Amino acid sequence: MAIENLITDHLDLWTAAVRPKSSAGRGSNSKLDLTGIKKLRELILELAVRGKLVPQDPSDEPASVLLERITAEKTRLVKEGKIKKPKALPEIGEEEKPFELPDGWEWSMLAEIAEINPRNESDDTVDASFVPMSLISTAYNGQHEFEARKWGEIKKGFTHFSNGDIGIAKITPCFENSKAAVFRGLINGIGAGTTELHIARPYTDYVSAFFILLNIKSPIYLKKGEAGMTGTAGQKRLAKDFFSFYPLPIPPFAEQHRIVAKVDELMALCDQLELQSEAQLAAQQTLVEVLLATLTDSADADELAQNWARLSTHFDTLFTTEASIEALKQTILQLAVMGKLVPQDPSDEPASALLARIVAEKAQLVKEKKIKKEKQLPVISEDEKSFEIPHGWVWVKFGELSEFINGDRSKNYPNKNEYVAQGMPWINTGHIEPSGILTSSDMNFITKEKFDSLRSGKIIETDIVYCLRGATFGKTAFVTPYKEGAIASSLMIIRPYNISLREFIYIYLISPFGRAQIFRFDNGSAQPNLSANSVMMYAFPCPPISEQHRIVAKVDELMTLCDQLKSRLQTSQQTQLALAESLVAGVLA
């Protein structure tokens, strides 16, 4: 099968095989890694170095003649004193040859056709190029940039290279990421750079530097090189011997150039596929955002119902990325706190009656000295009301609904060396699961004696915990599955005065509106901090208690739908990836 046909006959497979990136920001198309196209690029390189990318031409001068010429050129250079006499090279054993070569090709090694890690000689005042690792790309064609320096500034303590040299990163993760280059366009033809490079300077141009580059960027080279790296984690390096003596397939001279040209052509096609895929993903995400905005912008329940019906008929085609499903979840939560998710019932007891009961309950708790009397909170201002709430709802300060309890910050605060295998849960931010509960597998524990010595921050089973600082501030969870325990100082306990409020409070805190409250009060530093005093000032749209229960049930129902969409998506992605890998394996077999 011609490689062009392999690409064009399976376009849907290459573009559909994607997987989520774990490190991208929410809502960005960069959350998807175009794995199918990445596999296609790897396949092109693998076919190139195996002699399967372009047809062989029997009239080409065989590679054995090229190697004889290189040997003759090395002898001349030694005789003229331009290079030292090379040491005898090891034989390449049959077991070392990773695949069978086409007719006219030969096995060689970089140490046979190039000088390894050469040095430059030049006047200190000459302008030259400096190339740190950050300026070497991972692109297949070995692109790089450079900075202008005087040779005298960079000749010591750095790796030397010149135009036409091949360089490869030898340290992890740069090697695995395929940082390698053919140096060109250097100022006065010379340069120096990062010490974490191996350099090969070809003795002649009988072997294309760009064909050598394809070899050292091929999946088989990177895989074998990674397996042979030595050193500690994070500081592993590729040995010079691997770079020097790894078996290198050498095609006839004319075929080398046909291969390099074909790789350029096919990689350009991959670039087009990537651009088209990214454009489609961007357009799809924009469409999702526009359609979801129609829900939150709906003027009334009838319009919302119409917009939802229009959206729901296209779920399977609209919500085809994890980012779009997450956007749907956020819209559901926003509709919930705006009072647009379920219809209002005029017979519901209004929220004002609920608040009156809470005021009475708080007064009783103060009278019983179970809580301290708090200062009266200010009335919600019009500026704080980001949307119009339905009839029967009330805008309140969050502090009117809950008690806020900080963790113990006294000298009794537990240290890590006080943790025990079993005991009382000691809860910190890292124990909050994405599902909104606490971990049951990686919890820290302290002794009962230590727990009893703490002055505050002790949970009961109906509490919610809320992160006050750090990169995860605003992270929220029920204390499930624990009935007792204590919190670290990075967390705060939210204890509703009326237990029936807790599920809606959780929905509020994880909704876009609830999350937006954080940024009204954080200190704006690199490590933001909230306090109980700021959280109690959050603007809270409070529904009637009966409607809260209907909202919670509807959110649960719709989140289950979202999880089903996500599960189907992940299954589909895994299938597409498996098909792409199977196709690649079949071609290379």
Protein described:
- About 1% of the residues have low confidence.
- 41% of the residues lie in helices and 13% in strands.
- α3 runs antiparallel to α10, α3 packs parallel to α19 and α10 packs parallel to α13.
- β17 and β18 form a beta hairpin.
- It contains 19 helices and 21 strands.
- The longest helix has 44 residues.
- With 589 residues, it is α+β, with helices and mostly antiparallel strands.
- The strands form 7 sheets. The protein has a 4-stranded antiparallel sheet. Strands 6-5-10-7 form a 4-stranded mixed sheet.
Largest sheet: 4 strands, antiparallel
Number of β-strand runs:
21
Lateral arrangement of strands in the main beta sheet: 4-11-8-9
Strand content: 5-15%
The proportion of residues forming helix, as a percent range, comes to 40-55%
Which structural class fits the helix and strand makeup?
alpha+beta
Oligomeric organization of the protein chains:
single chain
Q: What's the Cα radius of gyration? A: 33 Å
Q: What is the count of helical runs?
A: 19
Name the average pLDDT: 88
Tell me the span between the first and last alpha carbons: 13 Å
The coarse overall form would be elongated
Flag low-confidence runs.
Answer: 23-29
